[in-house]
Amino acid sequence: MAAAVALAAACGSTPKGPPTGPTTAPQISCPADVTLRSVTGSAQAVMYTPAQVTGGAAPVTVTCSPESGSTFPLGATSVNCTVSDVQARQAACSFKVTLSGVASTMSVKTYEAIGDSLTEGELGRPSVDARLLDIPNAYPTKLQQAFDAAYPGQDIVVINRGHSGDRIEKTLAELPGHLLRDKPDAVLLLGGYNNLTGACGPGQADSTACRSGVEDVAFGVRDCIRRTKESSVGVRYTFVSTLTPPGATGSNRIDANAIIQANVRIRQMVAAEGAVLVDSYGRFLGHEPEYVNVDGLHLRPAGYQALADGFFDVIRATVPQAPPSAAVQR
């Protein structure tokens, strides 16, 4: 072997090593999403962990845009990373860099959600004697999460006092006790469905019983607003939601026209009594298959999220908020 090498060197050639086997295509793995809170300006430079690459035939090139160390604005920005090798094989991944500013201070800290099964978080009843509760996806739970994200460390609390099966009269009767016990700064009301489920089935919107049920809802909402305002605990705001539209089918479906009539009366009572309207009905229109469960009344998790989003948007637009302190802004 040594003689062969010497001979090759003498002839001016370089011996070749063993042949290189085929390489696998390059693969890339992005770092986890990056979240920065309490950013004091409108943007900030962010360094992130490099993407991890395996395989590929050298040379292998990795690019990420925006690059690590770039200035990112407030909000969520997608970072897209790509790897390519000498054989023009590519792979890609992405992650998000999210920056949130210094939070304002929310002046209302305790919110009490009252109502029936759509407040409690029921998905529906698979049988007469059973019901499915999904408290983690109930709208008060989702609303709490929204407050925690937007106003971290401010001890904002959302209390869920919804109770499945309650008519608006029962909600009204239970309200004083809830107020004395919880001493909320704001009350969130969504109720009246159980006044309509029996009397206002499909095709029954014009029946005497249904019209009576609609009026019961209207006056029940009015009396809940009044009782809240009269309470000695000093509730500052009462937010009242319209009823959500029904699904296309389902055993608990309320006639769509009955829901519309009830919402007309709810809007009138809210305006007359000085409460704050949350138009959940408008938010749900066109999304019924996505938001309403198969029983035609109760909601899917996406529907409860939409309820929470509606309350959250109106609360933020209504309740005064103090800007970040000068000490924090420096």
The best one-word shape is elongated
**How many whole angstroms does the radius of gyration measure?**
30 Å
* CATH-defined fold name of the largest domain: Rossmann fold
Strand segment tally: 17
Distance between the termini: 75 Å
The CATH C-level name of the largest domain is Alpha Beta
What is the assigned CATH homologous superfamily of the largest domain? SGNH hydrolase
Q: What class do helices, strands and sheet pairing give?
A: alpha/beta
State the order of secondary-structure elements, H for helix, E for strand.
HEEEEEEEEEEHEEHEHEHHEHEHHHEH
Largest sheet: 5 strands, parallel
How many individual domains? 2
Strand order, main sheet: write it out: 13-10-14-15-16
Stretches where pLDDT is under 50 for at least 5 consecutive residues are: 1-12, 326-330
- Tally of helical runs: 11
Summed over residues and divided by their number, the pLDDT gives a mean of: 90
Q: Notable features of this structure?
A:
five-stranded parallel beta sheet, disordered N terminus, Immunoglobulin-like, four-stranded mixed beta sheet, Rossmann fold, 330 residues, disordered C terminus, alpha/beta
Task: Characterize the structure shown.
This protein is an alpha/beta fold. The protein folds into two domains: 24-101, Immunoglobulin-like (Sandwich); 105-321, SGNH hydrolase (Rossmann fold, 3-Layer(aba) Sandwich), CATH 3.40.50.1110. 35% of the residues lie in helices and 25% in strands. The protein is built from eleven helices and 17 strands. The protein has helices at residues 2-10, 117-120, 139-150, 168-182, 193-196, 208-230, 256-273, 280-284, 288-291, 301-318, 326-329; strands at residues 27-29, 34-39, 43-45, 52-54, 61-65, 71-73, 75-84, 90-101, 105-106, 110-115, 122-127, 130-133, 157-162, 186-190, 237-241, 276-278, 321-322. The protein has a five-stranded parallel beta sheet with strand order 13-10-14-15-16, with helices on both faces. A hairpin with a 5-residue loop joins strand 7 (75-84) and strand 8. Helix 4 (168-182) packs parallel to helix 6 (208-230). The longest helix has 23 residues, at 208-230. The termini are far apart.
